[in-house]
Amino acid sequence: MTDPVRVERMEVRRGHLVCRVAFGAAPRVTSPQLMSRALAVVPTLAQHACVNERGTTFAAVMDCTPLPHLLEHLVVDLQVRAESGQWLTLPGAAPSVSSHVAGTTHDRPIVGTSEWLDEAAGIARIDVSFADDLVALRAMRDSVAFLNKLLRG
Predict the structure, then answer these.
(1) Residues 6 or more apart whose Cβ sits within 8 Å of residue 121
(2) Is the dihedral of CA 9, 12, 13, 17 positive or negative?
(3) Residue 25 CA to chain centroid, in angstroms?
(4) What are the DSSP calls for the chain, one per residue?
(5) Mind listing the pLDDT tens digit for each residue in 45-61?
(6) Which of 47, 89, 103, 120 is the most buried (most CB within 10 A)?
(7) pTM over 0.85
């Protein structure tokens, strides 16, 4: 079975990771059911600061937001946890944790943006900042694996 979400291209730039992600046959927006399953594992998602048309947190839009937006917030969440030394192994992701993911604190917040490049084709661009490129790469990999697991039910 082919995973519906896959990273087509990753580009590590100075201070941020830019990814072109294909969402294939995956739904284009989240649902309350999908978010309920995501929040059961990553409850902090709802409290993320988020610039959106309905409020100041991800909770304001999470039940009906573009799927790339959810992926963006998963990647941010994993990086923030890694900085505090609390790496979360998501279901569907590789279980081993590198010692490299030990907590370190940085002064800059981890932020991201996401946008459809071609919504009909399911192609999006996700850009997330990072303090550590290796942590960001792992966060993207694990978040995609987790999102694929959520989408498979």
Answers:
(1) 22
(2) positive
(3) 18
(4) ---S-EEEEEEEETTEEEEEEE-TTS-SB--HHHHHHHHHH-GGGGGSB---SS-SBGGGTGGGSBHHHHHHHHHHHHHHHHHTT-----TTS-S---GGG-----SSPP-EEEEEEETTTTEEEEEEE-S-HHHHHHHHHHHHHHHHHHHH-
(5) 999 999 888 999 999 99
(6) 89
(7) yes
